[in-house]
Structure formats: structure tokens, C-alpha cells
Design a protein that fits this description.
Elements (H helix, E strand, L loop, with lengths): L3 E5 L10 H11 L2 E8 L7 H5 L8 H24 L4 E7 L2 H12 L3 E6 L4 H7 L2 H8 L4 E5 L5 H4 L1
Length: 157
């Protein structure tokens, strides 16, 4: 049923909560996993600075540093998956998150996109938007969405 599973990760513990689900599906179907991290330069600065026209403050060095960090993170994830016998590809892309996820899903012919929702509500949801909602509206592929659990009382606030 599944040959390629795309797993977008933002390097948060919440996003990583999708990994047991993706791993189980990959093992059950003999699927490969494509791990993706998207570096969005627009998210490097607070929105109020972007609205003020200070986007040029995002330097290529900042993006390069985040890209290296993302590759290191994904490489660690790949090693764990390969230890479980799962073929794993890693990708780091730059740009708007939803657009990058949809593009990579198309490029790799992903049969499934597996993502953990951060479960933001209210003002937080309105401010940050919802990657999961954006994917649902733009991607014509099956989506496995798992609502991530809070890790501590501080995160629930």
C-alpha cells in the first residue's frame, strides 16, 4: 500500500512524535521514509520585523547554519531508522514550509505524508498558522496526522 512515506520534522520533540507511527508503517509495508526539514527564512525573525521591511536582516550565514543543524538532526534520525532496516532519505529545503512539503511529496511520489500536529489553538494558531491545515488543503495525497501530546505543564500553557 505504501512505498514512500514523507515525514516532515521541525526538530521539535512534538514533531518527532510521528516517528513511531511512520516507523511501524514503513516496517509493515516495506516502505522507504523521506525525512524533511524546511528552513523558512521568513520564520527566522519576528513577524513585526518582517512587517517593518527588515527581512534583509536574515543573512545567508543564518540560513546556512540552520541548514547544517537540520542535516545533522535528520542524519541522526536516519541512522536510527536504518538500524531498524528502513531505507531512509533526508532532505533539507528552504522556503515556505507548506509549499516545500507539497513539492517534496510530489518529487518523491510519496504515498503518505505523516506529520504530528502541534495542536495550537486560539491566538497561537492565528499567529503561526497551521502547517497541517495547509497540507490538507494543498496536497492531494493521503495524510496521517497525529496530534502531539504536551511534554510538560509549561508547554500546555
Amino acid at each position: 500500500m505504501y512505498q514512500t512515506i514523507l515525514v516532515p520534522l521541525d526538530r521539535s520533540n512534538r514533531a518527532a512524535q510521528i516517528m513511531p507511527h511512520a516507523t511501524s508503517l514503513a516496517q509493515a509495508y516495506g516502505a522507504r521514509i523521506v525525512l524533511l526539514n524546511v528552513v523558512d527564512p521568513n520564520q527566522l525573525l519576528p513577524d513585526r520585523l518582517l512587517d517593518s521591511g527588515l527581512q534583509q536582516a536574515v543573512t545567508p550565514d543564518m540560513v546556512s547554519s540552520l541548514t547544517r543543524e537540520a542535516l545533522d538532526y535528520l542524519e541522526a534520525q536516519r541512522k536510527a531508522l536504518q538500524a531498524d532496516g528502513i531505507e531512509t532519505i533526508i532532505e533539507v529545503r528552504s522556503g515556505p514550509v507548506v509549499q516545500a512539503i507539497c513539492l517534496v511529496a510530489e518529487e518523491y511520489g510519496a504515498d503518505l505524508v505523516a506529520i504530528a500536529s502541534h495542536g495550537r489553538t486560539g491566538l497561537s494558531h492565528a499567529f503561526y498558522g497551521s502547517v497541517a491545515a495547509g497540507i490538507m488543503h494543498q496536497l492531494q495525497r493521503p495524510l496521517l496526522l497525529v496530534r502531539a501530546q504536551f511534554e510538560s505543564a509549561d508547554e500546555a500553557a
